[in-house]
Design a protein that fits this description.
The complex is a heterodimer. Chain A has one domain: Ammonium transporter fold. In chain A, 66% of the residues lie in helices and 3% in strands. Chain A contains 15 helices and two strands. In chain A, α4 packs across α5 and α5 packs antiparallel against α13. Chain B has a domain of 57 residues. Chain B is built from five helices and no strands. Chain B starts with 5 loop residues before the first helix and ends with a helix. Classes of the chains: A mainly alpha, B mainly alpha. Chains A and B meet through α13 of A and α3, α4 and α5 of B.
């Protein structure tokens, strides 16, 4: 989108506002999924942590981040290269001053980004389950919301250099990411990878002898219910993103919604089949990962592909996700309880690539490849560096005793299920 | 299958030679950070592709090369992070 984007009529303004009021359901769904995929003795810490992370991200984004993400106050901070202007940061008002007097479109754009950053910071929280301390999680959320997300959002959605690749270098319409596959999910998934690397695996996950220890999620109902709740949020996010960032007409929204649903359904079907074939029975948590991978893929594709193409992209995401989850755990020894690296990072990258392949514009694939190269080449090293520094100040990992008794008792002083019988944990060998 | 158990499968060099054992940590650190440093190089190749090649075909080729460089860096970083796993095991 550019600053010359058309103004919204009152009807479209109301429509986008309603969609954005539904979008937090994706955050709720993800929080439920993260909690269900963790252990019962860390459930309260997980869900409280989700609220705390979302709050911290919102506060920091409102105070600082929105300034750099802004795309409406002129070209922002720019430099010149090859005769073109490259906008690398916004120059919006500090602390959202004057927000109430901005145009409806500007207000909705900020609201969208506000929700997007909340979703992005939740993604690594699930990967650090059962050992990641809440203060460290809150600090990383603040850093992501203040120092990383605003720049990626500006590049992707407003007048940033990725969004203007089309106008400047004849690369389609510039980097396409209507629902936040890159700015939200790839950013969150790569942050999850950095967290897993820095925090290390849960104790007992990779014993000295034999295969890795299975540590299944404690509540499949949370996980699967969270998937259903997330669908509603995703439909809203993708539809609102199409109107805001892709300049779609309201008449295109049924296709966007259908694509979102088809992508998730195809992905779930693929994961269902592949786990049924490999394990003899479908695996609930992997199927949830597959469903979510389809939704993540749709974040990039829903606004630019046909329903059949959405089905194909979702199906491929659903095929790859369970295999990648298994590969990362067994071959690479990454302990990622929520599967965020596969679900959000890998599926997000696949969705961005697929959008370039299927979008009917010349040069679009090149723009998507530039976006992918930026996310991998800049965002991952930057996030890793920031988290590595932060780990020196606020250690990510709970001590051994805290991990043994569970993060609920360790950090909150009480469990999520005080009336449940707690069984001895055989994984601590 | 998961992890070749270095300290279990191979005799310690220090035991064989009576020399102080050189920790493998330095090598791991080099791999971690070398991999992560290579990845921005891939990004700058992508920028070079935009600026230097207006024609779509060589531009796409160059962009794919930049992604290959990033993938290589990621692979090295992943490999570097796999090394200390044995020490972290309980």
């Amino acid at each position: 989108m550019t600053s010359s984007s058309p103004m919204f009529s009152d009807t479209i303004f109301a429509l986008v506002l309603v969609l954005l009021l539904l979008a937090p359901l994706s955050i709720v769904g993800l929080a439920l999924i993260n909690t269900g995929l963790g252990r019962s003795r860390s459930a309260a810490q997980s869900i409280l942590g989700s609220l705390a992370l979302v709050s911290a991200a919102g506060l920091v984004f409102a105070l600082f981040g929105a300034t750099f993400a802004d795309g409406f106050s002129g070209a922002g901070h720019t430099f010149s290269l090859a005769g073109k202007t490259w906008s690398w940061a916004g120059t919006g008002p500090v602390a959202l001053s004057g927000f109430a007097t901005e145009t409806g479109r500007e207000q909705l754009s900020v609201l969208f980004q506000f929700l997007a950053v909340a979703l992005a910071v939740l993604i690594p929280w699930g990967s650090g389950a059962d050992r990641w301390r809440m203060p460290a999680g809150i600090a990383t959320a603040a850093v992501l919301a203040g120092l990383v997300f605003p720049f990626v959002a500006h590049w992707t959605w407003t007048t940033g250099w990725l969004a203007t690749l089309g106008a400047n270098f004849d690369m389609g319409v510039g980097f396409l990411d209507g629902g936040g596959a890159g700015a939200v999910h790839v950013l969150g998934g790569l942050s999850a990878l950095a967290v897993v690397w820095i925090a290390g695996p849960r104790r007992g996950k990779f014993p000295r002898e034999g295969l890795s220890t299975a540590m299944p999620g404690h509540n499949a109902i949370y996980v699967l219910f969270g998937c259903g709740v997330a669908l509603v949020g995703w439909l809203a996010f993708n539809a609102a993103g199409s109107l805001l960032w892709l300049n779609a007409a309201p008449a295109a929204l049924p296709v966007v919604a259908l694509n979102t649903w088809l992508s998730a359904s195809a992905a779930l079907s693929a994961t269902f089949i592949i786990t049924r074939v490999r394990f003899g029975k479908p695996d609930a948590s992997l199927c949830a990962n597959g469903w979510l991978a389809g939704l993540v893929t749709s974040s990039a594709c829903a606004g630019v592909v046909t329903p059949m193409e959405a089905l194909v992209t979702g199906f491929i995401a659903g095929l790859v996700t369970p295999l990648l989850v298994e590969f990362l755990e067994l071959a690479v020894a990454l302990d990622d309880p929520s599967g965020a690296i596969s679900v959000h990072a890998a599926s997000g990258l696949w969705g961005l690539f697929a959008a370039g392949v299927f979008a009917p514009r010349q040069g679009q694939l090149a723009a998507q490849l530039v976006g992918i190269a930026t996310l991998l080449g800049i965002v991952l090293p930057l996030v890793y560096l920031l988290f590595w520094l932060m780990n020196r100040v606020i250690p990510f990992r709970a001590d051994a005793d805290g991990e043994r008794i569970g993060m609920d008792l360790h950090e909150l002083g009480g469990g999520a299920y005080p009336e449940f019988v707690v069984h001895r944990d055989d994984s601590y060998r | 299958m998961l992890q070749p158990e270095k300290d279990g499968a191979e005799p310690s060099p220090s035991a064989a030679t009576d020399l102080p054992r050189v920790p493998a940590l330095k090598e791991e650190w080099v791999m971690k950070y070398a991999g992560l440093l290579v990845m921005p190089a891939g990004f700058f190749l992508a920028i070079a592709a935009i600026v230097l090649f207006p024609d779509p075909t060589p531009r796409i080729g160059f962009l794919l090369c930049s992604l290959a460089v990033e993938a290589m860096g990621l692979g090295v970083a992943v490999r570097g992070h796999m090394e200390p796993r044995g020490e972290r095991r309980s």
